[in-house]
Amino acid sequence: MLERLKPAAGLNGPLISNLRSYNRRAAMRTDLLGFNGTVERDPAIAAWMKEHRGELGAMAQQWFEVMRKCGDEVREVLHDGCPVACLGDAPFGYVNAFTAHVNVGFFHGAALPDPARLLQGSGRFMRHVKLRPGTATNSTALRGLIEAAYWDIKARVEHG
């Protein structure tokens, strides 16, 4: 099978380029995580937002709204106690409020370009951005990560 082939040292060209492209596509074909019960607007998330008032809740709500606006097919679900944004049933982002910070997380964050180096975490797939009240946030870069996460999951779902 092609994914077992390794190019010889020093080889390059169209064949090797196509092999690398195939390997990237094959890596994207892994089974995607899916959540049951995603809906256009989840009342449980509205309740979560009401429970998380104050500065941290406002931060979480602001960035979850950015996720919601990524596309018409964005759905959501409350999973493991936090709001999750999905393309269909495939999650791409979440927010969660803690005692002193908010996480804006990405289910395939390890695959996202992060030139501003906002992402934290060392897991195989997931990464998050930690936001703290009173600390400046690179809003442009964070918005870019959210959009990249949406387009990444869209590619995985549609071409997976």
Write the layout of secondary structure elements.
Layout: H1 14-28, H2 43-51, H3 54-68, E1 74-79, E2 82-87, E3 90-97, E4 102-106, E5 127-131, H4 139-159
Antiparallel strand pairs: 1-2, 2-3, 3-4, 4-5
* Spatial strand sequence of the major β-sheet: 1-2-3-4-5
> What's the number of extended β-strand segments?
5
Kindly provide the radius of gyration, computed on alpha-carbon positions and rounded to a whole number of angstroms: 18 Å
Rounded to the nearest angstrom, the distance between the terminal CA atoms is: 18 Å
Q: Which fold name corresponds to the CATH topology of the largest domain?
A: Aspartate Aminotransferase, domain 1
Number of domains: 2
Succession of helices and strands: HHHEEEEEH
Main sheet specs: 5 strands, antiparallel
Can you give a write-up of this model?
This protein is α+β, with helices and mostly antiparallel strands and 160 residues long. The protein folds into two domains: 1-30; 43-159, Aspartate Aminotransferase, domain 1 (Alpha-Beta Complex). It is 38% helix and 19% strand. It has four helices and five strands, in the order αααβββββα. It has helices at 14-28, 43-51, 54-68, 139-159; strands at 74-79, 82-87, 90-97, 102-106, 127-131. A five-stranded antiparallel β-sheet has the order 1-2-3-4-5. The chain is globular, with a radius of gyration of 18 Å. The model is unreliable at 1-29 (pLDDT under 50).
